[in-house]
Amino acid sequence: MYQTDPPRPPQETMPTMCDLPSELIGESGLPDEFHCIQADLLTETCQPQTYPPEEILLASDLNLYYDPRHTLWYKRPDWYMVLGVPSATLQQDLRLSYVIWQEGVVPFLVVELLSPGTEQEDLGKTLREVNQPPTKWEVYERILRVPYYVIYDRYENHLRAFQLQGTSYEAISLIENRFWLQELELGLGLWQGTYQQTTGLWLRWYNAAGWVPTSKEKAEQERQRADRLAEYLRSQGIDPDSLS
């Protein structure tokens, strides 16, 4: 491509998500069944009060391209949130990857779900190898400077959260395995319960009123309210079916 005067901006000249691979055959660390269910619960209950839904990207295992000098380098967070970017309204506009130099906005929060093969890198305990891409911790902390990094180890039921303070991550003190994000008016914590017919300890969002309900829980709450109203009407000698 010929140079122009003045030079064209990087958004016009650099690879886009359509030019970059969205998956590699044989790549390790792809999601298992737990990862998929956990990501669904995070997405379904993530309802910030401070941003409209159409300006929030919630992504799971979507390639994150982060370095314009090395355009094939990427990380694939188990789940992440980006604030202030438009969400797709048409199927053909759904993102193939998230490309930092095209989007211009870094993730606000990244969640990694520990597995035996990725634990050391997720926790920042591995050193970068010569002539190899940086580790996840380096990318999130030093390159992208993601404000919040959350790590959940389901094997040990251990939740850890870090907030960027200056140039490095500092651990957040958890109270009953929860922490509050004032920027979102939401909190994140461990919840014991059943989701998608699977019982366990799950990472889930909560608000000032309690755990943010799923669509199934909302429907059940509405059914219970309707049953209570019908019971009250019958106690008053009114047939609720006659009112419909």
Query: Sheet bearing the most strands, described?
Result: 6 strands, mixed
Q: Helix coverage percent of residues?
A: 10-25%
Number of strands: 13
In spatial order, strands of the major sheet run 1-4-6-7-8-9
| Shape type | globular
Based on secondary structure, the structural category is: alpha+beta
Compute the CA-based radius of gyration: 22 Å
| Number of helical stretches of at least 4 residues | 6
Low-confidence blocks of residues = none
Average pLDDT confidence is 89
Percent of sequence in beta strands: 25-35%
Give the topology string: H per helix, E per strand.
Answer: HHEEEEEHEHHEEEEEEEH
Roughly how many Å apart are the termini?
A: 68 Å
Structure notes:
The protein has 244 residues and is an alpha+beta fold. The protein is 22% helix and 26% strand. It contains 6 helices and 13 strands. The protein has a 6-stranded mixed beta sheet. Strand 10 and strand 11 (186-195) form a beta hairpin. It is globular, with a radius of gyration of 22 Å. The termini are far apart.
